[in-house]
Amino acid sequence: MTRNICITSADGQTGFLIAELLLTDDKFKQQLTSLTALTLDPSSAKAKELQALGAVVVAHRPGRERDVAAALQEAGCDTLCLVPPARADKLDVALELASAAKKAGVANVLLISAAGCDYAERDGQPRLREFVDLESVVLSAKGDPGSALGHSPCVIRAGFYAENLLLYSEQARNEGLLPLPIGENHKFAPIALGDVSLVAAHVLTGKGPHGFDDRHRGQMMVLTGPMLCSGKELAESASKALGQTMEFENISEREAKRVLKSQTDLDDSEKEYILNYYSLVREGKTNYISTTAFHDVTGQHPTEPDEFFRNYAGELRPKKKLRSS
């Protein structure tokens, strides 16, 4: 059974890591016939790296659905990993990709969505809520008997990426602080991006009589990290991993916005997404973990906060030892 996978937004962090894992892990690599990296910037370093690993890099030029469908057909794509791009028109581009995949006769589609989108309010957290609109379009193909796209869908609702905490590495190194606008009491369970990529790789390479493995086909997989953490508990995990005291500082959304603006080169829409998620935490709508899908799909345990902070110790460790309070 062939498996010609196309990964969208392959020049972004999520798409790149999924593609890289598929191309470098022998278990997944042997299940592939081909891997197409659909990228908005074919000249990017990530696109070139995937090409060197064996991916076919194809330019993605949104705006003309017919051309996008033709690109998918030319690639022989039978499986689409739809990763919404990190840009302001994310929803429009992703909806166009879903429609193009339908026209191209793609049979298997894995959508990378966002955990918490169903709790988000359209007025309060619009960047989160738009994932609900995208999910409804992708899953609506299931009720269309004339569409191959409805045969084998799967949705991964990925929780807040723990890597977003690295955006505050400057404060961590210089002040021993983890400044987050999440309030003092509510909790959330950040997930390592590598864990999301691992589940995606299992789904994309799993095979069954209808496309994806029947254990994955039709699933709504909600993925969070394995530990509910308040800001103080995150700082305690970081302190334990780094061997030096880190402290949590509850900052205002206004200050968080300034930090994101001055310390990152993220697209404005991604900054809005992060701030939307923080507001969801403050509202108490992230006080849960969801690890069953991760365990069932991978047979492993997701990354604990201590382990995550150890992995990134070089970026977070304070420049000088700070006195314990």
From TrEMBL:
Keyword NADP carried by entry: yes
PANTHER family linked: NITROGEN METABOLITE REPRESSION PROTEIN NMRA FAMILY MEMBER, NMRA-LIKE DOMAIN-CONTAINING PROTEIN
Family stated for the protein in its record: Belongs to the NmrA-type oxidoreductase family.
Domain (NmrA-like): residue spans on this chain: 2-284
Keywords: NADP
Keyword Cell membrane (UniProt): no
Name the UniProt record assigns to this protein: NmrA-like domain-containing protein
Signal sequence segment: none
Coiled coil start-end: none
Assigned GO CC terms: nucleus
